Amino acid sequence: MTKKPLSSEEITQLTSGLNKLARNLWWTWDQEAQEVFSELSPRGWQNLYHNAVAILREVSENELRARLQDPDFAERVREVLKAFDAYMNEKLTWAQQHAPALASNPVAYFSAEFGFHETLPIAAGGLGILAGDHAKSASDLAIGFVGISLFYREGYFQQAIDNNNWQTEYYNAAQSQEFADRSGRERKR
User: Fold this and answer.
1) Residue 123 and residue 116 in contact, taking contact as beta carbons nearer than 8 Å
2) CA-to-CA distance for 172 and 170, rounded, in angstroms?
3) What's the distance, CA 134 to chain centroid?
4) Residues 31-54: pLDDT tens digits?
5) What pLDDT, in 10s, does the model give residues 63-81?
6) What is the C-alpha to C-alpha distance for residues 42 and 182, in angstroms, rounded to an integer?
7) C-alpha span between 99 and 144 (Å, rounded)
8) In this structure, how many other beta carbons lie within 10 angstroms of the beta carbon of residue 48?
9) Taking the mean position of all CA atoms in its chain, how far away is CA 89?
10) I want to staple 95 with a disulfide (CB 3.0 to 4.6 A). Which of 69, 122, 142, 156 is the partner?
């Protein structure tokens, strides 16, 4: 038995749902969501450091629409979006039952860094990971929560171990060029 192709409206709903999901950290906590983005572009998933937004930019609109015509893939996308919607629209949360005032007066959480996912290189160590865990817990409990951090001028770097077992640092080319350009302008002032 063959399944009938999805309508243009259904494809548009799934595409819109994937774009909304990619811009929410929830996908970084859900294995099935990560697998959906990985399946769209396995090579891109590796080369783009598991970045869902970058994957959706890399895959053309036509290619995405064609992939969503695969009934099995479309069903996995629907299930992931259904789980995401359930998470986002949960009504009986801990915060609603025990701390409803936090919905309109959120907690301000100050940290020098937040460790969420490798696609957001805004953490360097344990403090950032702890702050990221607090943010996830607040999300799971539906606590009103605003993370406030620093903006590091030079950004973060990648680390590697060289042949002599020394740590080496490197910035990606775009970050390095942007920093060099900005530093040059500032020195001229």
Assistant:
1) yes
2) 7
3) 16
4) 999 999 999 999 999 988 899 999
5) 999 999 999 999 999 999 9
6) 35
7) 9
8) 17
9) 19
10) 142
